[in-house]
Amino acid sequence: MELGRCPARLPNVLGVHSATSQAVRVAVLADSDTRWKWGALTARRVVPEGRTVELGGFLLRGRATPTARQLAEVDAAADAVREVTGAQFLHALETGHGDTGPGGYGRGYDLVVLALVGGGVQAMLHGIAALGLGRRPVVVTGYVGVVYEKLADGLLLRHGADVVLANSRHDAERFRDVYEGVGADAAGVTQAALPFLGGARYEREEGRDTVVFAAQPSVPATRADRAYLLHRLVEHARLHPRREVLLKLRSRVGEHTTHVEEFPYQRLADRTAGGLPPNFRLVQGNMGEVLDRADLLVTVSSTAALESLHRRIPTAILTDLGIREPLGNHHFVGSGCLASWDQLDAGLRPDADPVWAGRSGVAAVDATTGAGSYAAAFDEARARVAALLDGPALPPPAPYYTRTTAPGYLPQLLARYHLDPDGRPLAPAASRDDASGLRRAVRQAVRDAARGAYRHGVQRVAPVIRRMGEL
E-strand spans in 220-341? Predict the structure, then answer.
């Protein structure tokens, strides 16, 4: 499915390039809206300065494949975006072009950004290795936000990429420890930062008082916990009638994100006793634009907290449901941002610890000059990518997981992405191009219907069954 050109409101973070500068052709493969945002912006951050970016977008077909509206909301541009299977993506790399329309440049890709879950990254690494390309693209991967669970699992699934980006000094240290601890090469670990941090530094405006609650699709997970947080947010608005209180939603009901949202706040808000107060609103849109008018950001553990902290906006990480690993708020221990709704109702405005913030990759300040260091956060990554692009042909990716190190795990993982144990597509990608136009249209219609039924089952039927089981 061709989704066309993504809108480009974000300024070019690498500056203005001359028309004659060397172009780098980049393919970004993502499996959700948040990972697309990370992947597309990362691609533009890591390409060496002085070179233009020709960015082709690929959306891995699955439960969380984003809609055109979601792509527009995350505000990450590409020359063209199309929906593919893993085998089709590998075929695009092998043939040197993703399609014959916009974004088809007629030559091989120089750089691939894998913005996927760990299993997807591992599958594509083995798939790229199996292609046996004479000069393969540089492969970059990483994480879209805070790494607070499945550290070893996720990292080992990403091993084999030429560059594994760490979003902070703390993460870089942890990543290297994991790789070295299992005897894997840690040279690919590269310290950087989240690519979407930015915006003006916070300054309080006279007459403005806005609280933003950043919702998450699966944290907390239960209906009772989500109803509790919504109740406290609404009561906060009633307690402070002159304060604007915004509930920033992740998606519309029925849309899919990285995680399944079984109990959307929109539906819970519709059942609020007494209705919603006039100073309370549900909002959507680009998070950066919402933060432009925020005087306090409240969340359980959303990545939005890092964006807020980077701008020095007062940021509260809620403790009402405990400080627990499943919630992810344990990541903020030591940040100075942990707070409860009772404290926020009483007027608390947390002040982040600068040492913690700098170590965590946000609001970093150089101890000698006092200047912010975010502008230089991607220098190491750009230097490594430049050396790989300009160096000799790279050998095939060599992931830690092989048929020798993980014979009971790897074949099953690759099969989920329709690859055989050696990383080759189970169905030859070329056969897809041999089908008639009618057969392709019918197959696409059936595929779309099946995916719609699957999504309906995941978000509608499964939650009902689980709730019935709790009766």
Answer: 244-248, 280-283, 296-299, 315-318, 338-339
Pick the most confident of 234-243, 248-257, 349-358.
Answer: 234-243
Planar angle of CA 217, 220, 226, nearest 5 degrees? 90
Give pTM, 2 decimals: 0.82
Q: How far apart are CA 187 and CA 179, in angstroms?
A: 9
Establish whether the linkage from the previous residue to 220 is cis, with ω within 30° of 0.
yes
DSSP for 248-280? E-SS-TT---SS--SS-HHHHHHT-TT---TTE
Asked if 312 contacts 201 with a C-beta cutoff of 8 angstroms, the reply is: yes
- pLDDT greater than 80 at residue 365: no
Residue type, 311: R
What integer is the mean pLDDT of 279-300?
Answer: 95
Phi, psi of 133 (to 5 degrees): -65, 140
Q: What is the pLDDT of residues 308-347, one digit of tens each?
A: 999 999 999 999 999 999 999 999 999 999 999 999 999 9
Q: Hey, is 68 helix, strand or coil? A: helix
Residues 228-236 have a mean pLDDT of 97
Cα gap 75→319, rounded to integer Å: 31
**Per-residue pLDDT at 62:** 83
Looking at residue 421, the DSSP 8-state letter turns out to be T
- Cα dihedral 162→165→170→176 (10° resolution): -10
Q: Is 310 exposed, middle or buried (0-12, 13-18, 19+ CB in 10 A)?
A: buried
Give Cβ neighbours of residue 325 (< 8 Å, ≥ 6 apart).
148, 149
pLDDT at 65 > cutoff 50:
yes
Q: What amino acid is encoded at 364 in this protein?
A: A
Strand-pairing partners, residue 28, are: 57, 113
The phi, psi pair for 27, rounded to 5°, reads -115, 125
